[in-house]
Design a protein that fits this description.
Fumarylacetoacetate hydrolase, domain 2
């Protein structure tokens, strides 16, 4: 099933829903008192009580009254996760080398926005450029602590898509030398359009991820290229901290599709089996960067690698 949050009008309540082939199905009645909680707590409650709620949700999924998707506004399915844990790198990107050590950082939960919302680039000039990073994100269930990679499914409720918007300084280095600061500006964590439950994803390490910037395809990769696959991510993260229901683990991106985001752009992410969502880009300073896929000296884009070899 595909779980989400929606508003029927701009000033209306945010209600839990299912996203189906027929449209958006309100499930407030099916989840009972959980629907009266704030949206993040409501979704955490659905995750915690999913097994007991599932029969009623399955009926709604197949028979519930549906509204056309374009008649409502989807909201981020997790409006304020307790933790957003992000992998650093984590893709081979055509490299012939030993895997890099697995590493992660925490991204600001207040950076979350949802489908149709706006990424607002900050009004100062120190960062060199703002990149998009299209990623698969794991939605955890918990409390989960010290989960082995063999039992990784015990900590996974489902999956969503995330755009890890990033302010960078020079080449591919993250602004001010660390990961979390350049990735934690308000609006820098679009997620959605829904949470697809884990039973609908046979293998999270075999999903197609794409990202378009104003119609131009940039990211276009499969999650089977991860250096450290999902079971290892669960083991590593839960060794360090307790994973609670509604936390996110973003699996990293294939940097071969990096490109600049700038004023007036429309960013669209699609992850196989999860769905597609778009966000608007606004830059009050109206800065401009070269359009297209980043081809700088540290790029791992195949065309950039080939050009560097030819030049050498």
């Amino acid at each position: 099933m595909k779980l989400g949050l929606y508003q029927a009008s701009n000033d209306g309540p945010i209600n839990p829903c299912l996203i189906t082939d027929r449209g958006v199905v309100d499930i407030a009645a099916a989840v009972g008192p959980l629907a009266s909680l704030p949206p993040q707590q409501c979704m955490e409650g659905i995750i915690d009580h999913y097994d007991e709620l599932r029969p009623a949700l399955e009926v709604q999924n197949s028979e519930g009254a549906a509204q056309p998707l374009d008649s409502v506004q989807l909201r981020p399915p997790l409006p304020r996760p307790g933790k957003i844990i992000c992998c650093i790198g984590n893709y081979w990107e055509h490299a012939e080398r030993e895997p890099k050590p697995l590493n992660m950082f925490l991204k600001n939960p207040d950076a979350v926005i949802g489908p149709g919302d706006t990424v607002m680039l900050p009004e100062f000039t120190e960062p060199w450029v703002f990149h998009h990073e299209a990623e698969l994100a794991i939605v955890t269930k918990g409390p989960s602590k010290s989960i082995s990679r063999e039992n990784w499914r015990d900590a996974v409720f489902g999956y969503t898509a995330m755009i890890d918007v990033t302010a960078r300084g020079v080449a591919r280095s993250t602004w001010r030398g660390g990961s979390w600061m350049g990735k934690s500006f308000d609006t820098f964590a679009p997620i959605g359009p829904c949470i697809v439950t884990a039973d609908e994803v046979t293998d999270p390490n075999d999903l197609h991820v794409q990202f378009w910037c104003s119609g131009e395809l940039r990211h276009d990769y499969n999650t089977n290229d991860m250096e450290h696959p999902v079971p290892e991510l669960i083991e590593f993260a839960s060794m360090i901290m307790t994973l609670h229901s509604g936390n996110l683990i973003a699996c990293g991106t294939n940097h071969e599709g990096l490109g600049a985001l700038q004023d007036g752009d429309l960013g669209e992410i699609e992850v196989q089996g999860i769905g597609k969502m778009s966000v608007n880009i606004v830059d009050p300073l109206k800065r401009e960067w070269e359009r297209g896929v980043y081809m700088g000296e540290n790029s791992t884009n195949p065309a950039a690698v080939a050009a560097a070899k030819k030049g050498g």
